[in-house]
Specification:
Elements: H1 3-15, H2 18-25, H3 29-43, E1 48-50, E2 55-57, H4 59-87, E3 91-97, H5 99-104, H6 106-116, E4 120-125, H7 130-139, E5 144-147, E6 156-171, E7 191-195, H8 202-213, E8 219-224, H9 227-235, E9 241-244, E10 255-259, E11 266-274, H10 280-292
Pfam family, one: LysR_substrate
Protein name: LysR family transcriptional regulator
Domain HTH lysR-type: 1-58
Length: 298
C-alpha cells in the first residue's frame, strides 16, 4: 500500500473537490486524479462519484475514508514516537541507589529527572548494596545505579559523580559526641556498627581499611544491610558508625555526626549502566544526573 495514495484520497474525500485537494497537497490536479484512479484500480472498487460539477463519496469510499484516516493517524503517531525515542524524551528507566544516595540525592534527582524528561517514566530502588546493584544492572532489573566504586566489572560503564567525606555517627550521649572531630584512634574499644561483610559492602571494606591503616583493632558489634537501619541502631545507643557525609540527611534524633580528623578520607560516588547501552533516553538521564549531583569538596 502506497501511503501517498491514502493521503491523496483523504484530501480529495475531505475537500470533495480535486482542485482544492491539489492545492492542499501542493501538487497538480492531473497527477492527483491519476493517483486516485490507480488506487481504485488496485482496490477493485469505486471510491468516488465524479461529475463535471462535484465529487461525492461512494458507500465504499465512506468506509475506506474512516479506515484511511485511522491508518494515517497511526503512521503519524509512530513517526512522532520514533522521533521522541531518538531524541531521548520517552522511555522507562529504573534507578538503583546506595543507601547514602537514597536519602541525600534521590529526592532532588527524581524531581529533576521528572522536570527535564517528563516523557520518561522513572522508578527507583533504594538501599541497594553495590554487589546487588551490579547484579541487577547485568540482569536488566535496573538501568542505572548510583553506587560506590570500586567495581571491577568490565560489563559495566562507571562514570564518576563526586567524592564524599566520611563522618562518624555516634549516639548523642556518647563520649565521642563531645569532640569536634574524631580520630580513628578515638574509636578504639568503641562498639561499631558496619555494613554487612557477608553481602560484600564497599563501605565494610572502606571502614576496615581505615582501622587497619591506623593500626586499630575494630570492635564490630553489629552488621546491617541498610544504611537507615545502621543509623537507627546508632540512635538506639548500640554503637558508632563510619558513614559517608550524605547520610547526615537522615537527621535522626539521638544521633550526632562528627567529621573524621584530617587528612579527610573520602569515598567516591558514581553512576553506572551496562556497557553497550546506547538508548537516547538513558544517555540523557545520565547527563541530567551528572549535572544535578552537587559537587562535594574532598
Amino acid at each position: 500500500m502506497d501511503l501517498r495514495h491514502l493521503r491523496y484520497f483523504v484530501a480529495v474525500a475531505e475537500e470533495l473537490h480535486f482542485g482544492r485537494a491539489a492545492d492542499r497537497l501542493s501538487m497538480a490536479q492531473p497527477p492527483l486524479s491519476q493517483a486516485i484512479r490507480r488506487l481504485e484500480s488496485d482496490l477493485g472498487v469505486e471510491l468516488l462519484h465524479r461529475s463535471t460539477r462535484r465529487v461525492d463519496l461512494t458507500d465504499a469510499g465512506r468506509g475506506y475514508l474512516a479506515r484511511a484516516r485511522a491508518i494515517l493517524a497511526e503512521v503519524d503517531e509512530a513517526a512522532h514516537e520514533a522521533r521522541r525515542i531518538a531524541a531521548g524524551t520517552v522511555g522507562h528507566l529504573t534507578i538503583g541507589c546506595v543507601g547514602s544516595a537514597t536519602y541525600s540525592l534521590l529526592p532532588a534527582i527524581s524531581r529533576g529527572l521528572s522536570r527535564e524528561l517528563p516523557g520518561v517514566d522513572f522508578s527507583f530502588r533504594g538501599e541497594m548494596l553495590v554487589p546487588d546493584q551490579a547484579a541487577a544492572l547485568r540482569a536488566g532489573e535496573i538501568d542505572l545505579a548510583l553506587l560506590r566504586p570500586p567495581i571491577a566489572d568490565l560489563s559495566l560503564t562507571v562514570l564518576p559523580l563526586r567524592r564524599d567525606r566520611l563522618v562518624v555517627a555516634v549516639p548523642a550521649d556518647h563520649p565521642l559526641a563531645a569532640l569536634r572531630r574524631v580520630e580513628v584512634a578515638d574509636l578504639a574499644g568503641a562498639d561499631l556498627i558496619v555494613h554487612s561483610a557477608d553481602r560484600r559492602s564497599v563501605m565494610y571494606d572502606v571502614v576496615l581499611g581505615l582501622f587497619r591503616d591506623a593500626a586499630v583493632e575494630p570492635r564490630i558489634r553489629h552488621e546491617v544491610g541498610e544504611t537507615s537501619t545502621l543509623v537507627t541502631l546508632v540512635a538506639g545507643g548500640l554503637g558508632a558508625a563510619v558513614v559517608p557525609e550524605p547520610v547526615t540527611a537522615l537527621d535522626l534524633d539521638g544521633v550526632v555526626f562528627r567529621p573524621l580528623a584530617r587528612p579527610a578520607v573520602t569515598v567516591d560516588l558514581a553512576i553506572a549502566h551496562r556497557t553497550g547501552r546506547t538508548e537516547p533516553h538513558l544517555a540523557r538521564a545520565v547527563s541530567v544526573v551528572r549535572r544535578l549531583v552537587p559537587h562535594a569538596p574532598a
